[in-house]
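stuck on whats below:

***
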Amino acid sequence: MKKRILVIGATGLIGKAVAERLNDDGYNVIIMSRNRGKAREIFPADYEILQADALDPESIRHSFTGVDGVFISLPEATVPAAVPNIVRAAGESKVKQLVYVSGCTVRRENACHPMIHAHLAGEECIENSGIPFTILKLTMVMDMIPRYANNGKPFVIGRQVHGWSWIHSSDIARMTSTAFAGGDALNRRFTLWGNEKCTIAEAVEGYNRALGLSAGRVKPKPYWFAHLLSLVAGEKLKYAISIFRYFEDHPEEGDTEEAYTILGRPRMSLENYYRLAGEVA
């Protein structure tokens, strides 16, 4: 019998890739979304879509009926409130596995930043749930590069000197499918890196060259200038500034060997990602 996997966060970059890969690999995929209409625009008719909000425990109770596994990829702002609701509903329905997307630098020593604090709370809630779990601790995701590239007007702030081992959503999706397929991934935390390391600015430069947006160097904006912009743009930009400061102070962490052994190695290279992005553009 096919496993039934509930995907929470399927309209996001990672969640969408995971839902599609699970479907291709023969799982019965159920999409849980606050906006059923938006989800239906993304996923064809053979996907089951349930309208429910993880922040509302009553609305999600029946979404877990008959579900074998749950994949969770949520914005950090919603994690502290949403994950306990998900864990409670999953426990009541006797879900056999939770797979949660977190970050490779998420640990208590770094929890001074709200992004890290939120994901740490999510990890701990899942680990203490008594439900078998798999936590995927990601480095930078290639699919975010276009946002930094900003249509040829790069938006990078501060001295981003650390290299990041960029991983693509297709590799995350394949590893997630493998995690649901067997028992070796249960009750483990995996660090997921890609094969090539470069700074955010270098990643944007490669993307811009591939799409013909710019062949020049990316010059990150100084913090003082970003703070001036935030007087107009508001809290969203202020939060982005805090994240860039965090990236500047905290390089990627972790050991990938266990993930590669159990879930397989990443395949997508930056060069191939740029090429594919250029073909779509």
Observations:
- Residues 235-249 form the longest helix (15 residues).
